[in-house]
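Format notes (please read before filing issues)

Several people have asked whether sequences and structure tokens are stored in separate files. They are not. Every record keeps both together, in the order shown below: the sequence lines, then the token lines. Line labels are part of the format and must not be stripped during preprocessing.
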Amino acid sequence: MGATDESIEATRTYLRYNENMDAAPPGEEEAIDKIVKVLHTNNQRAFRKYRHAVRDAHAKSHGILRGELTVYPDLPPHLRQGMFATPGSYPIISRLSTTSGLLRSDRIRGVRGLGIKVLGVAGPRTLPDDEATTQDFVLVTHREFLFADAKAYLRRGMPTAWLLARLPDTALRLGSNLLGGVAKLLPRVGLSLPESVAVFVRPNTHILGDTFYSSAPLRYGEYVAKLSYVPLSKSVRDLEGVLLPDDIADDEFR
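Then the structure lines:
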């Protein structure tokens, strides 16, 4: 006998926020300082390459979009939190990007990003001197963030970030295509690529049909949640999983 939607919903539990979740582990500030230094050297290198400043991540914009975010009136209680507590709509500005800190060719596989700035949001802010009336969401095409904390990011993520900032497009594309082929063979022997590598060999799909995730859990009113942006209308659902050919232009997404 199949379970109904109501019975499935009744068995779910939602993680409530508590202040202990905000406690920083020992050594986090030092780890962050070291991460900033590595990213700063990457920024300096990128400036020498392009002769103008770029971001240390999500450097390449594929498109800036205007739209509207609608808060539905029938959300269940655990979703009616913060700006989603009251039905209505907000104007938004969105930015599509690739997570690299360099202006890479769109032929290179990798993680794509979606930044959403919601305008006209009232309510208390995290920082006491913040008087903005916006809410930002940063989403990527990778479901889980690869590192548990700043120390793990420094130890395992920064060497990769340092290397990727120095590899030319040709080497990166050949390497990702080679690893993509290996990834298809490994399941036959019960193996898979490490997640820290697999994110760079995901298929190069149409960016408008991609699903984007918050990757890390966020404070969501009385709860802790992860957010996702999923294609809903037919025009973008038709683009889900659509593979791009290998010979696309460097700026194909634009």
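For reference, the curators noted about this record: The chain has a mean pLDDT of 91. The two ends are 49 Å apart (CA to CA).
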